[in-house]
Amino acid sequence: ELYNFRLIKPDTKVYGLVGKPVGHSKSPLLYNAAFKSVGLDAIYMPFLVDDVEKFFNTYSSPDFASGCSCTLPHKEVALKCMDEVDPIAKKIGAINNIVRRPDGKLVAFNTDYVGAITAIEDGLRVLDGAVSVDGSPLAGKMFVVLGAGGAGKSLAYGAAQKGARVVVANRTLDRAKELADKVGGKALTLNELENFHPEERMVLANTTSVGMKPNIDQTPVPKHVLVHYCLVFDAVYTPKDTRLLRDAKQTGAAIVYGTEMMIRQAFEQYTNFTSLPAPEDMFRQLMENHA
Ligand code: ATR
C-alpha cells in the first residue's frame, strides 16, 4: 500500500531515490506519507540506477521527475549532471538532493551536512541554555572532525561555513592536511589528538567508520580525551549507541546521535522538494516504527 499507481495522473509530481541499492531505503515511506498528509498529488519511488549520467541524460525532459534523492554510489557523478549546485555541496564534491525548478533546471544540494550541523547546533543551544540566538552557536567554537573522507569533508566545510575553527584529525595525516588547508583549519593525526587541548569545551564530530563494526566495540579516541569536549557527535548510526557516545556521556559531554543526522537530512530534502516544512513528528514516528 506504499504505492497506489492508479492514483498517478499526468500532472502527478514524480520524485524518487536514485542509487544502487535502493530497496532498503526508508525514504519512500517517509515522503509518500508526508505528501498524503498534506494532500499533495505526488509520489516518491525507488529508481535502481547503474549509470547515473545516462539516467539524467535520458530523463532530461522537465516533464519527468520533479526532484530526487541521490544515494550511493552516485553522489559524486550526479553532481556533474546538474545545471546548478549549491556552493557548499560543490566544495564537498557530493550531492544527495536534486530539485527541478519551475524553469526545468536541475538544482542540487547536500543535505547530509545540513542534517549533522543543525543537530549539533541545536545540541549546543540546549547546552548554552539559549532558546534562540542570532547566528550559529558554532561561530568561534573549536570543532574537531575525526576523518577526512566524504563525511569528514561535509562536516568540515559545514562547520567552517558557520564560523567554527576547524581541526581535522585523521589516521593518515596527508588526507587531514589536504582537507584542513581547504577549510583554513589545522591538521592532526588521531594519535596527536591525545595531547591536543588548547582549550576546553570543544566540539568533536566522528566521521570515521570506527565503531561501525558489529560486535567490535571500538572507539576512535580514548575516553580520557573526551573531558575537553562539551559536545560529541558520531556519524556512525549502526549501532546507535556507539562506544564513543557512551564514553562521552560518562565524561559529561552532550551527545548527538548519528540517527539525528539521518532524519534531519530527510526534513531538509522534503522542504527542498515541496517548499513546505517537514512533518517532523511523523517522520520520527515512522522511522521508529520501521526500525
Ligand atoms: P566516508 O565517505 O564515509 O567518510 P571514506 O571516504 O572511506 O568514507 O573515509 C573513511 C574515513 O575513516 C577516513 O578518514 C579513514 O582514515 P584514512 O584516511 O586514514 O583511511 C577513516 N578510518 C577508516 N577506518 C579507520 C580505522 N580503523 N582507524 C582510524 N580511521 C579509520
UniProtKB/TrEMBL annotation:
It comes from Flemingia macrophylla. It comes from the Eukaryota. Coiled coil: none annotated. Residues 17-98 form the Shikimate dehydrogenase substrate binding N-terminal domain. This is Shikimate dehydrogenase. Residues 138-209 form the Quinate/shikimate 5-dehydrogenase/glutamyl-tRNA reductase domain. The chain holds residues 241 to 531 of 531 of the full protein.
